[in-house]
Amino acid sequence: MNFLFLLYVLAHTKSFAQKPKSELEDSYVKFFEKKNCDEKCIYPYLNLNATYVSYFPRNCTRICSDLRIDQNIDLSMEQLFDLLKNMKHLIGSLAVGVNDNFKDMKFLSNLETIDTFYQIQFKMADFLTEIELPSLTTINGPGWEIALHKRLKRVHFPNLKNITTHDSRSIEKFDIFFLGQLPEFCVSSDTIYNFMRIQGLKTHHVYGNICPPNFDNSKICQKPAPGCVQIYGDVNVGPNFEMKNLNSVEIIFGTLTINGARLEDANLLNNLKYIAVLKR
Ligand SMILES: *[C@@H]1O[C@H](CO)[C@@H](O)[C@H](O)[C@H]1NC(C)=O
Ligand SMILES: *[C@@H]1O[C@H](CO)[C@@H](O)[C@H](O)[C@H]1NC(C)=O
Ligand SMILES: *[C@@H]1O[C@H](CO)[C@@H](O)[C@H](O)[C@H]1NC(C)=O
Fold this sequence. Notes:
Blueprint: H1 2-18, H2 26-34, E1 42-43, E2 62-69, H3 77-84, E3 89-96, E4 113-116, E5 120-123, E6 130-132, E7 138-140, E8 143-147, E9 154-156, E10 162-164, E11 175-179, E12 186-188, H4 189-197, E13 206-207, E14 209-211, E15 220-221, E16 230-232, E17 235-237, E18 251-253, E19 256-258, H5 263-266, E20 274-276
Parallel strand pairs: 1-2, 2-3, 3-4, 3-5, 4-7, 5-8, 6-9, 7-10, 8-11, 9-12, 11-13, 12-14, 15-16, 16-18, 17-19, 18-20
Bound molecules: 2-acetamido-2-deoxy-beta-D-glucopyranose (NAG) (3 copies).
One 2-acetamido-2-deoxy-beta-D-glucopyranose binds near residues 23, 46, 52 and 72.
């Protein structure tokens, strides 16, 4: 009896010793409770690395974590991709600053929603040239910062159509801060179009160019023409301008100058909803 009891104690001490103590701050513990996180799908550690890989709930699609993938990561791009491939929904927060093994962020390509307690941060990954999150549709949280990347050329979030803030904070308070170091840094036109369509979302802290869209689509034009829905380039409307050419335009990625045109003609700007110009 005593012997069996000792075995029992030993077995349990061992399993307690195996799993390291949670590194979560209380505020996150509360946030996870509020969000009904499944115990099994909480990753309670701050970093992802080779030593802690086995504790990552890799089979969960909805993962709760204050997740940081930093420069010290000792996993390869493939290992990280494999680890995160089922993660579709992240509750908690996300900070990424990978090392020179990483040129892109394919390891987050299946991520669809981020419900973040803190601002999302993609910072100081000097070797990333592109950030594309093809599946991302939804962000709920206080803000998003992409900055201090030496080689970053393009960011692209083609399906990000829903951005909201916690509780009743106004969407105008959602802080998007995208800053490129390279002169050619650009944000894809699809991303800008999505941002424009989110009513009230402010983009005045997006510093960069708008990447040229794919002109194979006949609705995307460089010059006003019948049928264009998006125009990439500045539009000058003078006295002899064919207003009909702007009839179906919804967005101009550039400036619109009206110079000497009759005002009643401007009523033909029926569908124009957005003019997108970014600061450098
Ligand atoms: C790995 O990550 C864990 C969890 O945050 C951390 O406690 C540990 O110090 C890290 N180990 C190494 C070698 O970086
Ligand atoms: C995850 O799923 C795989 C394949 O379905 C299974 O072999 C593995 O045991 C699961 N791991 C955990 C931690 O549940
Ligand atoms: C947008 O996201 C919020 C939560 O983040 C969700 O409640 C809402 O239903 C979503 N709206 C749409 C149109 O998907």
